Each structure stands twice: as C-alpha cells, then as structure tokens.
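Check these lines:
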Amino acid sequence: MTSFFCPGRTELAGNHTDHQRGRAMAAAIDLGMTAEAAPNGTGLIQVYSQGYAPVEISLDRLWPEEREVGTPAALVRGMASILGQSMTLQGFVAHVESQLPPGRGLASSAAFAVLMGYIMSFFSGSGPAGPETLARAAQKAENRWFGKPCGLMDQMACAMGGAVYMDLQENKFIPIACDLEELGLVLCLTDTGGSHAGAESAYAQISQDMTQVAQRFGAAFLAQVRPADFEAQWPFHQEELPWMRARHFFDETWRVSSMADALGLRDGARYMELMNQSGRSSETLLQNIQTDGLGSELSQGLDASARLLKGRGAWRVHGGGFAGCVQALMPAEEFPRYQASMDLLFGQGACQPIRITPQGAGVRKSDPAPQPSER
C-alpha cells in the first residue's frame, strides 16, 4: 500500500469571487485527508471512507449519474472520466481517513477529489498529474458530477499547498508568504454548528445573480466587465440584490490584491483591517449569512466575534456561507480569551487554531502518512 495526503484549505480573501473568475487568496492547512491505496488488478476503483458508503466505480461507466449527486461516488467517477481522457487509468483500492469535517468550509469535497485524482494519476504509469491539472479536473468533477457550482479556489489551494494568490481571469497562481504566526497573530475557525443542508440553492443563487449582472454587459463572468462600466450603472441598481452581490465582487477582487500586498509588507494591522472589510461586505452586500431560516448560528458567531474582537482583531464568514464557520485573526495574547468565549457558546473544541502548510506542501505521496495535529 502507498500512502497519500491532501490538505484542506482555508479561504483568506475572495469570498465568492472565484466562480466569476476574479481574484482570490487561499491557503492549504495542516489538516487534510490521508489514503492508503494500491492497484487491485481490476477495472474497478474501490474507495472506503469512514462514515460513507463504500464506493465502487467501473472504469467502463464514467458518465454522470443523477443518483450520485452530492456523494463521494460522483467525485470519483468525475475525476476518472476527466483524467482518463489523457492517461490510461487502472483500478485500485483506497482506504481514506479525513480530518476535515464536511460543512466547515475546509474544502472537504475539493480535497477528496484532488486526492482521488492524484492517486489515479500516480497508478496510471504517466506519473502524478501536476497541481493545475488536478485542480481543474476537480473543479469540473464538482461542477458536472457532484452538482456544486464552485470556482477553482478550493481545488487549487489543496493541490498546490501553502498560500496561493490567484487571478482566475489571467490564469495566474502565485505562491505567497503567509507568516501570520511570525507576525504574532493566530488564525482560527469556530464551528458554529449550523448545517449546510438546504443551503445548496442559496449558494447557487449567488453565482446566478452575479452572472445575471455580467450578462447585462454582454459578458459571461463579472471579471470580463470593465469596472468603470459597472460603476456607471451602479447608482441606478444599488438596492437590487444581484447588483449588490456584483458590487461585492468588484470590491472583494480589489481587496484580494491589497491583502496580498499587506502580507508581503508584513503589515498585520493592515491585513486585519482589510479582512474586516471583507467580512462586512459579505454580510451587507453578498448577504451569505442567513437565508430561509438558515445561518442563525453563523450570525450569532459573527456577532460574538464583533463583541470580543472589535478594535483588537478581525472576523468574517468562512467559505460559502449560510452555515458553518467564523474565521478570526487576532494577536496571540487575545486568542485564549476568544477561544474560551466561543467554546462556551458553541461547545468545547468548537474554536480551533489553524496552521498554514509550507509552500508547495499540497497533495502528494506521503510515506509515512501524516499524523493528526495535536489540538
């Protein structure tokens, strides 16, 4: 058996910009998925994961199946279909263990897809596929087989490792230094306990609304719209939700570059200022906190973070929104108080620090398999 590892990721900036081919910044973290895998001499891919039904996919049957939407089987089938167009795949058996709870915004589905793709390419005889190949295949598998209208941010961060600045219109993926601990800061996530069940349509609506505005300018994506053209029309539409979400896109895309600059200058105060701007934009313009009875726990977590960190740190929704995690950044001396308060609200262990992997430490063959981080 060969050991493999794929990290999860944390979104740093660019909330809901990637599916419009804007700019985003994300980083792989020290939690992820491990797999023990070996060829099985058949035309079947067999995957066993704790908490999920066994997956068995025939390499002769790889088109999307409606009954598999939203399941690991869809991602395995999709990755095999896409990668099988450029390499000769063989069957294998894999046993997967995950440190990435689904629904917490750590890109568990992207990490699983990238991990499966790496194993497929590793055993194909063609050599492991590169990060961009794996990331693009994983995005397509999530879009067409799994049924999630996501962009490329999650998959690219998992595949590359470290912190990555992405310009998805220009196809630029640039590793950047993200030494938050050296700046005396602690990055953490608090699981507020809300479920993403039922949020799929709300998540998809964000992309649809942004695309609707782009089409008003004859474009397929907002990144293809000239900012000056949008600004000229904004005063006439600023109370309409699709246009508010488009406003968030243009502001957030600018913010990504500014946050990357702040990291390059090692300016933690400026980075936290911009992170707070990102969070408030998600709440007021993107409006991905609450919908149809979902997100009350997330809203409570953001309100608590505002009380605990105002003037001393930064906080924002993490991931797609409507449920899940609050991301917070603060001076190290503030963290014990913040953690204790958030754990009191949401349960012991709800608030955990996260650590960014070194540059280049993305999906890979790993021998021995990584051990879970102490928490």
Summary: Residues 369-375 have pLDDT under 50 and may be disordered. The two ends are 28 Å apart (CA to CA). The longest helix spans residues 241-264. DSSP finds ten helices and twelve strands in the chain.
